[in-house]
Amino acid sequence: MTKEEILAIIEAADIRIPGGMGGVTLDFYLDRPNQEIEHDDAVDAIVGAIWKRLRKNCKDPDREIRKLHELGILQKIRKGVYKLDTSAIRSRSNEEFSPETKLAAMERDGYRCRFCGMGSENGVDLQVDHIKPRKFGGSDELDNAQVLCGFHHNLKKTQNAVLTGRAYFEKMREIAVKNIEQSSENEKLVVFCEEILAVYDRHGHSR
Questions:
Q1: Which candidate, 96, 73, 94, 93, places its Cα nearest to that of 9?
Q2: At the topology level of CATH, where does 3-83 sit?
């Protein structure tokens, strides 16, 4: 996909394309679409590109990257890792819960991803997600909020909630199989997951 095609997607999503340092930062990711890019690799290149093009010192390249994420152009996969996923570009201007609702969701979910159970101590970025997306009529109330890590939040957006759930049970079964000799509970878990996955298959939700 060319830069022009990606920029057209961004504009179609009603996202303002930034200029200045933000524009240089965007160009870095436009040259690397659909790649998960580590913090250090991005920052050094962005600082150099800003100086070369604008003759300015960029004192806070992290801020420029975060702005692109806040706009909905970049997806945060995990701490320090961003990706310009061309299939997941969408404006975040209307996707925000109130700060109070976000805090309540974090506290209710124990500051952990509902899918994988990982928290910030595991190096993951936690986000508050609409269980039922707003474009399908989902509300901004607490009962429609769930905490997800960046990976599962992005997975849900790029696949859909049903297939994300299937991926969760597949991973749970895989872990239980690896540890099946350690506890009889793992044997039960394997059976449970296989029964759930059979329901997915029966309703045509295979991956």
A1: 73
A2: Arc Repressor Mutant, subunit A (1.10.10)
Q: How many CB atoms lie within 10 A of CB 3?
A: 12
Residues with Cβ within 8 Å of 13's Cβ and at least 6 positions away in sequence, in order, are: 72, 89, 90, 91
What string of DSSP letters covers 108-126? HTTTB-TTT--BGGGTPPE
Instruction: Specify whether the backbone of 90 is left (phi greater than 0), alpha (psi in -120 to 50) or beta.
Output: beta
Determine contact, residues 149/140, Cβ cutoff 8 Å. no
Q: What is the pLDDT along the chain (207 residues), one digit of tens a residue?
A: 899 999 999 999 889 899 999 999 999 999 999 999 998 999 999 999 999 999 999 999 999 999 998 888 999 888 889 999 998 898 766 567 888 999 999 999 999 998 888 898 888 889 899 887 766 667 888 988 999 988 888 777 766 667 777 877 887 888 889 888 888 888 999 999 999 999 988 887 665
State if pTM tops 0.70.
no
